[in-house]
Amino acid sequence: MTYSVAVAGASGYAGGELLRLLAGHPEFEIRTVTGHSSAGRPLIESQPHLRSLAELTLQPTEPEVLDGHDIVFFALPHGASGALTAQLRDVRLAVDCGADHRLESATDWAAFYGGEHHEPWAYGVPELPVAGEGSLAKQRDRLVGAARIAAPGCNASTVSLSLAPGIAAGVIEPRDIVSVLAVGPSGAGKAAKTHLLGAELMGTANPYAVGGTHRHIPEIRQALRAAGASEEPSLSFTPVLVPMSRGILATSTARLAAGASAGEVRAAWEAAYSDEPFVHLLPEGVFPRTADALGANTCLMGLAIDEAAGRVVVVAALDNLAKGTAGAAIQSANIALGIPETTGLPMNGVAP
Ligand SMILES: NC(=O)C1=CN([C@@H]2O[C@H](COP(=O)(O)OP(=O)(O)OC[C@H]3O[C@@H](n4cnc5c(N)ncnc54)[C@H](OP(=O)(O)O)[C@@H]3O)[C@@H](O)[C@H]2O)C=CC1
Ligand SMILES: CC(=O)N[C@@H](CCC(=O)OP(=O)(O)O)C(=O)O
């Protein structure tokens, strides 16, 4: 079967990555692309790397342009998709790469984003363990048949995937988690480029959102709660911009739960991910580099136990635009529609 697809925000980074992946998907046909300031212009002007889509022209991002497609992917700034998605009448599946439909808590939304809180949609990280639905239930189960999906924040999915297996198995404590991330500037979108010109980015590392202010903190807490945290999760989260265009390397440490053995810890992550096509626990002593996941819908992680500190250390790498956004969106859409989950999604990175 062929599904007709529209991509809203096709001139941006996330939109471009959606199109790159969708162009190779055998069951999806890209019919419509939309932009905002670039509406009316050829797509190829904003996405010169997408040669196979050179004939497409960006339409305005309006409900009447998007309605009538089987699937609409949204890659718009926060706050822009919520009002728009509410006006869709005839769309089988909508997938939002922005934050508008991620958070269940209106209080968290008000504290970290502000503006109108929209209804939460099925969260698009299929591999996350979820509590209360049988042993090793996954978020995937909630995506089957879904009509509305919220793709994750890229930093949030990296950290949530890093820690959820240990929370679900009760081998790490949900309090006093510390995560420090090296992140590439494409995560901030094309619109942020004026702040990220070479002089400010090349040859230097820039911390931002320091001190518990980053918008992905409530999203991670929500995922860890869903994984069955025995108490309210608490997390110190610090991202650092580094000069690589794409990629996230997240180092997360959590206290070892009382009585948990090294074998039980590793077994928790192995049990969670051994059958997953896109999330891999690397062999003992091996830790990922961002390049290993570049361009792939893949999250790689390495795990160690720091006995002296009494902490489990997880180092995870993914490509913010692929597994962090567009790949997760397409993977979740495959699940929702009953298409084999790996269809159209690259598994291998392009390192070095
Ligand atoms: N970049 C990343 O790694 C990730 C991004 N996301 C999310 O994906 C979404 C898109 O991000 P990204 O691609 O990086 O951002 P970009 O700035 O690269 O692209 C934004 C897109 O939205 C369009 N746009 C801008 N303003 C409006 C508006 N007021 N109404 C409708 N459309 C508008 C732009 O059109 P035009 O260019 O024509 O003006 C462009 O197509 C965001 O919600 C972001 O948080 C999620 C996870 C990771
Ligand atoms: C470098 C950079 O700024 N990265 C962004 C990642 C944005 C993202 O994952 O998407 P959402 O904005 O949709 O949550 C950040 O840290 O906020």
From TrEMBL:
One of its GO terms (cellular component) is cytoplasm. Pathway: Amino-acid biosynthesis; L-arginine biosynthesis; N(2)-acetyl-L-ornithine from L-glutamate: step 3/4. It catalyses: N-acetyl-L-glutamate 5-semialdehyde + phosphate + NADP(+) = N-acetyl-L-glutamyl 5-phosphate + NADPH + H(+). Its EC number is 1.2.1.38. Residues 4-133 form the Semialdehyde dehydrogenase NAD-binding domain. NCBIfam families: argC (TIGR01850). It is an enzyme of class 1 (oxidoreductase). One of its GO terms (biological process) is L-arginine biosynthetic process. Belongs to the NAGSA dehydrogenase family. Type 1 subfamily. InterPro entries: AGPR, AGPR_dimerisation_dom, AGPR_type-1, NAD(P)-bd_dom_sf, Semialdehyde_DH_NAD-bd. The active site is at C154. Keywords: Amino-acid biosynthesis, Arginine biosynthesis, Cytoplasm, NADP, Oxidoreductase. Catalyzes the NADPH-dependent reduction of N-acetyl-5-glutamyl phosphate to yield N-acetyl-L-glutamate 5-semialdehyde. PANTHER family: N-ACETYL-GAMMA-GLUTAMYL-PHOSPHATE REDUCTASE, CHLOROPLASTIC-RELATED, N-ACETYL-GAMMA-GLUTAMYL-PHOSPHATE REDUCTASE, CHLOROPLASTIC-RELATED-RELATED. SMART domains: Semialdhyde_dh. It is found in: Cytoplasm. One of its GO terms (molecular function) is NADP+ binding. This is N-acetyl-gamma-glutamyl-phosphate reductase.
